[in-house]
Write a structure and sequence with these properties.
Layout: H1 27-51, H2 55-59, H3 65-96, H4 102-114, H5 117-127, H6 130-133, H7 137-160, H8 164-173, H9 178-189, H10 191-207, H11 210-214, H12 220-227, H13 232-263
Helix pairs in contact: 1-13, 3-7, 3-10, 3-12, 4-7, 7-10, 8-9, 10-13, 12-13
Length: about 280
Amino acid sequence: MAAVTAEQAPTPRAIPRPRRRRASLPVWRWAILLIAGVYFLVPLFAALRFAGISAFPSLFTQPGFWPSLWLSLRLAAVVWLVTMLLMVPTTVYVHLRLPRMRRMLDVVTILPIVIPPVVLATGVLQAMPLALRASVWLLGLEYVILALPFAYRAIDAGLRSIDVKTLTEASNSLGAGIFTTLWRVILPNIRTAVISATVLIVALVLGEFTMASIVLKTTFPVWIVEFDQLDANISVAASLFALFVTWIILMVITVAASRQSRRTGGGEVTLFSVAPRETIGN
């Protein structure tokens, strides 16, 4: 047979590439987003119109404004630290040694949500010594109890997304102790869950009113309610300021954590869920 020259050889046909379809939201989803936007934005606009822009400059000079705000921020930091020190080792230990205790831990950590805050605060006051009752940190202990359901479920979701037992055994086989394993192996892999718990704890502390008013501690929400009897415009401006400050803190935490997760190959950080991520090493 004669050899086929390059000119006589049939030219391959270009395979058409499939066109990418642009992701579009259905009409009913846009309707839900529009209704939710109106539901949240209209009250904010009404409050801003009632208070007026002129109320914000005088807000920062009101007596008790900065001490109450500083107290709420300190409580948020202390509650986060204590809650993480309690829940991270406990949840990891339950996943490793006592997997059958997960259901009981689910029930125990849900009790602060089931029990009314008034009953919970009164019970803590009766159980604590007199010296601690006069301290502001009693409110921090109550907030730790109130934050347990949110912190446990966020951390538990992060631990369920990785193989904790295999990681621990591999770390122990390399000579690492329990604290080294927890700090350098487990925590980097549940960083997303820890940040999600942080967001929930900060939002909880900066917005809680009932417990603080019962134990007679003037946190920022309590100061807003008390100042409402003197000047309603300033009180509404303070409420909007607290809302904006909380949003800014949560957005900073979320953005910083998302950037760190992308650098290490992890999942995205969201406010109410933990995105799946690959196991990483440190």
